[in-house]
Amino acid sequence: MFFKAAGTEELDAFYPIRPESVANVPKTRFRPRAGKTLSERRWHAAFSGDGHLDMAKVLRRIQRGGIHPSIKGAVWEFLLGCFDPESSFDDRNQLRQERRERYDTWKTECQNIVPVIGSGKFITTPIITHDGQPIEVEGVPVISSIPEKKAAQWMLLLHQIGMYGVPFHAQLIQISLAYVDSRGLDVVRTDPALTFYESETNQAKLWDILAVYSWMDNDIGYMQGMNDICSPMVILFENEADAFWCFERAMRRLRDNFRSDTTSIGVQSQLVTLSQVIKTVDPKLHQHLEELDGGEYLFAFRMLMVLFRREFSFIDSLYLWEVMWAMEYNPHIFLSYETGDSSSDTNTAVTSDQKVLKQCGKFERMNMQNGWSDKNGALSVFLIAGVLETKNKQILKEAKGIDDVVSIMGDIVGNLDAKRACENALKIQNKYLKKAKKQ
């Protein structure tokens, strides 16, 4: 088993919350439902004798009722493109072993530079100056020589991963600061309500994965919010390398959101698409937001960056993610990631191939049938558009400034049903595609 073993049927047994935090976390709405939720029995029954997975059957079940916690990690590996449903058990075991060895190689490279990695501890204070000079830190071996440029840039990130995070560019979020967690989304403060992170060892596991990822993907490095994406993988997978690869595949979808420089950050591209969607499906609401100086939709910044982690309980956010990923699923995702060839993603053209469409999630199927391929048009964009539509009357009536919009949108915390929100997003997508065709 490569995922956490099943315990009791109670959700709290899988993701227990610290007693003192119970009153402060959003109420969980998700409950496994017989006949709708993908169960362990249904999951195993979806495989052929040699390991080929009936992905269409799995997607239908997930889109109806999510995934039971006992198999969540194993299913996510397919949803995120870690494995090809057409592969055999032997194929996947071999690939898993190769990936574990690759991760170990990267981690060893990091340990050779900073020995704290892999020790069960993590860094929360700088270990190097901006000009590359070592800093003495208690419990951390002093760097004996000035590191080369890549290593130096990476080392400057390590304490920021551990303690404060790398802040979003201030000019870009001065409107959305009230809607972004200003504490810094870092290891020390990641999911503090969960008993899992009472353990320094578990915190260090999260830090190790983020440190290795920032070394491997030095173009992106580390930004606030990446730990919120990685945290569930650390909890779901016993093996650190397996958790890393699941996170790496999730970042394939999200990494452009974290790409930044002194004047822009990647998530702005999705905000532009959100603006276009609302302008098309609800021009009156869009005009009102523009008049309130909210036409850039920065109030939706955090939702897109951390995929609604602050709007849902931990359990409900996982439920939302897996339903979204199931709806977005494209059967060519594995090949696209393995080869780095985006042309293997068939949503760039209209298709009526029923075999291909059957293997797609609802959202991706509609895109393929309409030939719509905006890479910034993820389901999360339409989900926010759907929330805005449900708040339409209140925003038009009560919002006199952008702070009012932030407040109204903040009311959804703990009050949003994940499945209903995804279904509403599909309706907005359908409405948008129909209107966009006429324009």
From TrEMBL:
Superkingdom, taxonomy of origin: Eukaryota
PANTHER family from the UniProt entry: TBC1 DOMAIN FAMILY MEMBER 15-LIKE ISOFORM X1 (PTHR22957:SF533), TBC1 DOMAIN FAMILY MEMBER GTPASE-ACTIVATING PROTEIN (PTHR22957)
Name recorded for this polypeptide: Rab-GAP TBC domain-containing protein
InterPro entries assigned to the protein according to its UniProt record, in alphabetical order: Rab-GAP-TBC_dom, Rab-GAP_TBC_sf
Residue ranges annotated for the Rab-GAP TBC domain, each copy included: 66-328
Pfam families named in the record: RabGAP-TBC (PF00566)
